[in-house]
């Protein structure tokens, strides 16, 4: 849906992308938000599928360099797609609230965080901490610190030894979790 929005930047595709995009199209043809009558892969649809694939890889924590290399885009293109997706999700959330669809509005919130940080659902709590993005959140998670409560319960000594954390950030994280 995000990739099909008129305000979303769609990515062009070349011959090297065609087979992969057609494979994705075939696998998901029944769930695409298009008319089922005469369902055929148009150039516009393949561009939207490429854009959606970039977003999907982003929220599955694929490294930025791997995404940009695989899809033949620049880091600025990725950042633009992420920012536009966040903006579109925000707008959808506000519309849902305005028309009384509170459950739907709440359901959009975690996806917005995932798009913003480029993380899987399991890291949502950790990226809520100041100074923790996708890399540090994954590092904490892999070290056994699964959520904010885990940060609070983990000793400073153990926390500062987690890769990408260090002493200063560990102190700040302990302070943040002590306040909550």
Care to describe what's here?
This protein is mostly helical and 180 residues long. It is 63% helix and 0% strand. The longest helix has 24 residues, at 75-98. The model has no long low-confidence stretch (mean pLDDT 91).
Could you outline the blueprint of secondary structure elements for this entry?
Blueprint: H1 15-28, H2 43-59, H3 64-71, H4 75-98, H5 102-117, H6 134-142, H7 148-153, H8 156-160, H9 166-179
Helix pairs in contact: 2-4, 4-5
Strand content of the residues, in percent? under 5%
The assigned CATH architecture of the largest domain is Orthogonal Bundle
- Structural class comes to mainly alpha
Distance between the termini: 36 Å
Evaluate the radius of gyration: 19 Å
Which regions have little confidence, pLDDT < 50, spanning 5+ residues? none
CATH top level assignment of the largest domain: Mainly Alpha
**Could you describe the largest sheet, including whether it forms a barrel?**
none
**Number of helix segments?**
9
CATH T-level topology of the largest domain: Sec63 N-terminal domain-like fold
Count of discrete structural domains = 2
The overall strand count is 0
Provide a brief overview of the structure:
This protein has 180 residues and is mostly helical. It contains nine helices and no strands.
Name a few traits of the molecule.
180 residues, mainly alpha, Sec63 N-terminal domain-like fold, DNA polymerase, domain 1, 2 domains, 9 helices, 63% helix
């Amino acid at each position: 849906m995000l990739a099909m929005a008129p305000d979303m930047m769609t990515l062009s595709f070349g011959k090297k992308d065609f087979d992969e995009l057609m494979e994705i199209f075939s696998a998901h043809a029944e769930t695409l938000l298009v008319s089922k009558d005469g369902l055929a892969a148009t150039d516009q649809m393949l561009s939207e599928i490429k854009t959606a694939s970039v977003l999907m890889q982003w929220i599955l924590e694929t490294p930025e360099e791997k995404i940009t290399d695989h899809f033949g885009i620049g880091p600025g293109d990725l950042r633009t797609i992420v920012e536009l997706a966040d903006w579109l999700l925000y707008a959808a959330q506000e519309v849902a609230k305005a028309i009384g669809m509170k459950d739907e509005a709440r359901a959009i919130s975690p996806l917005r965080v995932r798009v913003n940080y480029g993380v899987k659902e399991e890291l949502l709590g950790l990226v809520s901490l100041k100074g923790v993005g996708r890399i540090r959140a994954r590092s904490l998670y892999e070290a056994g610190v699964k959520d904010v409560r885990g940060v609070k319960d983990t000793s400073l000594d153990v926390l500062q030894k987690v890769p990408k954390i260090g002493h200063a950030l560990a102190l700040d994280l302990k302070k943040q979790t002590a306040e909550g």
